[in-house]
Amino acid sequence: MNLTIERDILLENLNIISKGLPVKTPMHILTGIMLYATDTDLFMTSSNSDISVEVDIADSRLQIETPGKTVVPGRFFIDIIKKINSRKINLCVSDDKILIIKADRGEYKLHIMDPLDYPKIDFVSQDNPLKIKAEVIKSIVKETVFATAQSEKKPILTGLNLNCSSNKLIATATDSFRLAQKVVSIESENDFNITIPSSSLEELCKAIDSYNEDLNLYFTQNKLLVTYNHVCFQTRLLDGNYPDTSRLIPNEFPIVVKFNKDELASAVERVSLLSPRDKTTDKEITFSIIKFSIKKDRIVEISCNNTNIGDAREELIPTNLETNSPITIGFSSRYLLEALKSFISTEISLNISGEIRPFIIRGDMDSNLTQLILPVRMDN
Question: How many CB atoms lie within 10 A of CB 144?
Fold first, then answer.
C-alpha cells in the first residue's frame, strides 16, 4: 500500500474513527485501525465491543499509487498525525511489517499487524432507513442520557430507550431514582422499541458534533447502524425489555411551584456545598441530599443539615405558587441540577404530588421534555 493524502482530511476522519477504539480489550488486534486502500478510496475501520466505525475517504486530493490493506496501532497513529505540521502525508507499507509515514522532512515507522487477524465487521444493510435530523438526536441525548444508570446491576438501564409508535418517538432514560423523557414527532414507516448503550450515543454525538443534516438509521434485532456522509457508525443494542415507566409519572399535582431556573440552580448549588452524602446500597451512587420546604408564608426554603460540617439555608420567592398546605421533601441536589441543565426554558415548574412521591420538573419552553426525581424519606 502506498498513498498520499492531505493531513487535514486524514486527521478529520481519524477523529471520527477514534470513537470505535477500545480503552481496554483482550483482542490486541482491535487496538489497531484497519486501513484499506482501493484504486480510488481509502477505507478506515475501528471496533470495540460496543461500537464499530468505518469511514470512506473518496477525495480528489487522495492519491493512491498502490492499493493494499493493513492494520496500524490506532492511538500511536492518531497521535503522530496530530503532531505533524506537513500539509501532505505519505503512507507506505514496507515488507508487510512496517508502515512508513513521511511528512516534509520527517519520517516515522510503525510496526503493523496482519489484516487477516482483524475480525470481519458486518455492518447492517437494509432498505428504507429512518431519516432523522442530527440536531434531533443531539438534543435527545443531551436532555436525557445523563439519567441512565452507571451501575451494571441492571444493564438495560444503562441505555436510552427509544420507543416509536404512530410517528411519535419517546426517548426515556432512568436509573430507578430519576427519569428523563423527551417526546418528538418523526416520520417512520415502522414502529420500533430499542435500547441503545448511553456510551455509544455519547460517542455518536461527538462524531456528529459539526454535522447538522439528516442521519440514516438502520435496525436489526441487536444492532443499530447510523450513516451520514461517508461514515458508518454501528452500535450494539441492549438485550431485554425496558421497564414500563409510564406508571411512574403522577397524573395530579396538588402543589405547583414555579421558579426562575437560574435563580433556583444557583441557590441549590450554594446550599448543597454543605449537604451530607447519603450512600445507598449501591456504593457507586452518591446523593447530595437537601430539603425543599414550602412555608406557611408561601416562601420556599432550601436547606441542609450536616452534623459534621454545618448547616445551610436559603429562602427563595417563587414566580408562582399553587398549594393549599406546607410541605417538605428531600432529594438529591445533583439530580435536580442535572435536570435543570436540560431545559432551555428560563422558567421551570416543580410539580409535586406528595412528600415521598416522585415530583416532575417541566419548562415553559420545553413542552416535550419531562424530568422526574424520586424524593428520599427525611428524618423529622
Answer: 26
pLDDT digits (tens, 9 = 90+) for 15-61: 999 999 998 888 999 999 999 999 999 999 999 989 999 999 998 88
Long-range contacts of 121-125 (CB under 8 A, 24+ apart): 121/45, 121/47, 121/52, 121/54, 121/234, 123/52, 123/54, 123/225, 123/232, 123/234, 124/218, 124/219, 124/220, 124/223, 124/224, 124/225, 124/234, 125/218
Give domain status of residue 195, yes or no. yes
17 and 59 in contact (C-beta within 8 Å)?
no
Closest by CA position to 10, among listed 63, 47, 52, 65 = 63
Which residues in 81-98 are b (16+ Cβ under 10 Å) and which e? beebeeebbbbbbeeeee
**What's the predicted TM-score (pTM) here?**
0.90
**305 shares its domain with 202:** no
Do 113 and 135 fall within a single domain?
no
* Paired residues of 72 in beta bridges: 33
Distance between CA 295 and CA 278 in Å, rounded? 25
Cell numbers representing residue 57 in the block = 475517504
Query: What is the crossing angle of helices 198-207 and 134-144, to 10°?
Result: 140
State the residue range of the domain holding 104: 2-117
Condensed to tens digits (0 to 9), the pLDDT of residues 242-275 reads 999 988 888 889 999 999 999 999 999 999 888 7
